[in-house]
Amino acid sequence: MANIKSAKKRVLIAEVRAIRNKAIKSKVKSFVKKVDVAVTAGDKAVAQTILIEAISEISKATSKGIFHKNTAARKMSRLTKAVNEMA
After folding, report:
1. What's residue 51's pLDDT?
2. Crossing angle for the helix pair 44-63 and 5-41, nearest 10 degrees?
3. Under 8 Å CB-to-CB from 39, ≥6 apart: which residues?
4. Domain ranges across the chain
5. What pLDDT, on the 0 to 100 scale, is given for residue 87?
6. Helix/strand/coil (H, E, C) string of the chain?
7. Is the pLDDT reported for residue 1 higher than 90?
8. How far apart are the C-alpha atoms of 47 and 34, rounded to whole Å?
9. 65 pLDDT exceeds 80?
10. Cα dist. 37→8, 34, 41, 44, 66 in Å?
11. Mind listing the pLDDT tens digit for each residue in 2-61?
């Protein structure tokens, strides 16, 4: 355990940020899963609406530094490609 006051504060801040990051990553995963389910079901209209929301969440996570920009681009590209390849 840290002895210096600033080091103790850093520990607390790191815990808070880790919780925030996990929550945002979980939210992104949920949206990705919703898009995958819609694609599997073959419902293009629903897939497109959820895709827009998913891309928005991924972009927000990237702007907060949770995802690297290339990781975000890859995720968005794969989701978009899956929706576009539907019938």
Report:
1. 97
2. 160
3. 47, 82, 83, 86
4. 28-87
5. 64
6. CCCCHHHHHHHHHHHHHHHHHHHHHHHHHHHHHHHHHHHHHCCHHHHHHHHHHHHHHHHHHHHCCCCCHHHHHHHHHHHHHHHHCCC
7. no
8. 8
9. yes
10. 44, 5, 6, 11, 24
11. 899 999 999 999 999 999 999 999 999 999 999 999 999 999 999 999 999 999 999 999
Show Cβ contacts of residue 54 under 8 Å, excluding neighbours closer than 6 positions.
28, 31, 32, 34, 35, 76, 79
CA angle 60, 76, 80 (to 5 degrees): 135
CA-based torsion, 56, 23, 78, 72: positive or negative: positive
Residue type, 8: K
- Please, are residues 83 and 41 in contact by the beta-carbon 8 Å criterion? no
Q: Which two tokens stand for residue 22?
A: 């996990």
| C-alpha dihedral, 31 to 33 to 34 to 37, nearest 10° | 160
